[in-house]
Amino acid sequence: MRTSPYIGLHIVIAILALLPFVLPNSFYLDLAIRMAINAVIVLGLNLLIGFAGQISLGHAGFLGIGAYASAVLPTHFNLHPLLAMGVGAALAGLLAALVARPIFRLKGNYLAMATLGLGIILNIALRNEAAWTGGPDGMPVPALGLAGFELSGDRQWYWVVAALLAVSVWASLNLIDSPFGRALRALHGSEVAARVVGVDVARYKLAIFVMSAVFASLMGSVTAHYIGFVTPGVADFFHSIELVTMVVIGGMASVYGSLIGAVLLTALPQALATFEGWETVVFGAILMLSMIFLPRGLVPTLAARFGRGA
Amino acid sequence: MLAQFLQFLFSGITVGATYALAALGFTLIYNASNVINFAQGEFIMLGGMLAVFFAQSGLPLPAAMLLAILVPAGVGVLIEKLAIEPVKGAETVSLIIITIGASLVIRGLAAVGFGKGTFSLPAFSGETPIDVLGATLMPQSLWVLGVTAAAVGALWYFFNYSLAGKAMLATACNRMAAQLVGIDTNGVLFLSFALSAGMGALGGILIAPLTLTAYDVGVMLGLKGFVAAVLGGLGNGLGAVVGGLLVGLIEALGAGYISSAYKDAIPFVLILLILFFMPRGLFGARLTERV
Predict the structure, then answer these.
(1) Which domains occur in chain B, in start order?
(2) What pLDDT score does B48 carry?
(3) What is this model's ipTM?
(4) At B77, is the pLDDT very low, low, confident or very high (cuts 50, 70, 90)?
(5) What is this structure's pTM?
(6) Residues 82-141 of A with CB under 8 A from B
(7) Alpha-carbon Rg of chain A, whole angstroms?
(8) In Å, how far is B155's CA from the nearest CA of chain A?
């Protein structure tokens, strides 16, 4: 079914390595950085939604935890930004672990409701605790650095984010072919059947949820440092939906689909800027059309057409 | 003390009635198609905005209201025909994205058509508050409760005594079996979208004189309607009404006694707690998974 998953990885690395030399200006470099950041988040989310079959409509909440940990902890507690990033990821992971057991007893639309609620509560908390978070206006984020060296400029950021993305693709490919990955796909197929063959369903769901939450929190921190400013918008419902849409449009349970989905949906708002005032309408219409005509997502549909597994 | 409590009670039940209508909308569509229609909130918004628009263009209020129910119902049918029927049996996530796409289209069009300002609809019968044991009750609240009760009653009659209503119930129970005994299940789908959009729009019109309306009010109202539907147990009509009133009530009491800044978070905290202990809501049916 699969020739070698690593061919794709080599292509991704080659593209990432060449990209900065062909991009005409810093506008495109900035776009590429944001695409890569989203791609890492979507990879993590796709492990949860695509491979394990558990929907999360509140994932931006975990992004928000990371982003605000990187903003609040260094500003108010003088914590080193790297340490703050770690604390954020730990918090996100802890929260995910705490809610995972009760939440993942739920299925389908009930699960959608619970994760959606979790995200909205986090978002409202960020908006309301203005003394810490700057409220709806947001707050600045200090620069990220280590031992006197400070990460600055789009080029440096590009290489950091590109390296993160390459590692994430490699890790995801390995993960889905490991016993862990096979267990996830088994419980997606049928939970009862998975349990019958000895998969501890609850434990695997918890593990993948925590993992994708930590992924999201870390990338939330990276985004916050890169942009230098956070607003509660990073954690709102619409952002959660955007992330899920990237997963589904690229292709559920497809590593390369996650990349395509992230690239397309990050570029889309830029492309739609010409529609002055009609962006939302066009964006919504594109979501609907792609789901109606490509319900399985781009990569799996194309792969099926050309007779290869993805 | 009592006056304050009554005040919270009134505002809670009034808003709760809108949530109940929205939750009924979710329930109708869910029963006919297993789809959670995330565009439900936009029907509420459309109801309020169109009523303002038609009233301002000189139509008498009742005519404006009627049109503001019929147009969203048409929009609902359009969504069903164009976007839901072609993808029958798709995965939950795909359906969620389609209806969210639809909600973005509607909200975007409303922003272009009506502008991004806030609008208000005149109250149906004056603004003189009624004094009840020290608490004030707006006449509009009575309209909200009365009309909602009438709508719920009409719906109950429809499902229990009309052939079309029974056909809808049968389809909700088992689509295949319904089709086999000759029920037009596509017609049921069509009707459920029209009814559910109309219900939502009605709620939006009723509440518009009390809370201002704008192109983006649908998001929160819709999500809270979803909370109400899940609280009552998805697919349960009575549950949806009870869920709506409960969500409104607890939100108002929580905002009054605990924290008004966290008013919008209260329904979501509530639903998380409920789902932790009752994974299928208050009145949800127990299901056994077939392998």
Answers:
(1) 2-277 (1.10.3470)
(2) 95
(3) 0.87
(4) very high
(5) 0.89
(6) 99, 102-103, 105-106, 108-110, 112-114, 116-118, 120-121, 124-125, 128
(7) 19
(8) 24
